[in-house]
Hints:
15 helices, five-stranded mixed β-sheet, 304 residues, 45% helix, alpha/beta
Amino acid sequence: MQTLTLLEPFRALFYAPFYVAEARGAFARQELAVRFETAGTPDAAAARLLAGEADLAWSGPMRPMLMRSGDPSCTLRSFCAVVMRDPFLLAAAAPAPAGGFALAGLRGKRLGLVSEVPTPVWCLDDDLRRLGLDPGADIDRRRGPTMAENAEAVLAGDLDFAQLFEPFACRVEDGGGAVWHAQAGRGPTAYTAFYATEALLAERREALRGMVRAMAEALEWMRSASPGAIAAAIAPRFADVPSSHRVRAMDRYQRLRIWADTPRFPRDALERLAQAMISGGVMAHMPPFEACVDTAIEGEALDG
């Protein structure tokens, strides 16, 4: 068995494939002993990787891309696609309109934005700009409280909408509210993958190929598993989340197809993310896809 230290930025239900791989023994079948550690934030995970304190992490592919856009010598590279659609949701206190909801309907509304991570805000802002809206001027955007607090604020009438991931959307629904919009509808968007330093990718390549194969197994199982089966598999990592919320969250995320069908990293998903970052002024240009993503290791793992 080879031992690997794997950093999660924080605990989240949309990261289910990683916990499924652990729970169902996919890592062990690759003769890998994977030690999970919670970094606390994506920034902390990247810093620990660069300091040599862990072998790999999962997080947004935006991080290596953003760092390379400012410093081409950055050695972090993404690999193994896992979450390739936006898992964030817009929830309101009232039932969703029967005919659906258009984002232009946010004009003039009080919107509680996610404060814990930046990517969902960049993506939503990009979608709004494509509709001709100025996110900062046309919407009463509020950023600062946590998602848990924003969920409560929606139900209390202090916000019209809150941008949330699961299980906070379930909490709004339990209070009589509803999900009005799923950001997954924007199409392929690179949200979560592994990443590591180039040195580690070279030194521990066979072990990392095993990680890709383990995730391929987990993703394949999840395509046909019931939401209840997925919720049960990840239960040990979410003892504080009610079973009903776990099942509803897995059902919603399955229907939204947020999880990749295969670990092969789709170029269009990274390009769509880069467009959102550029339109928001986060970075000036997209570094070459090949510099940001090690697709060779995916082919070695899946085709060899």
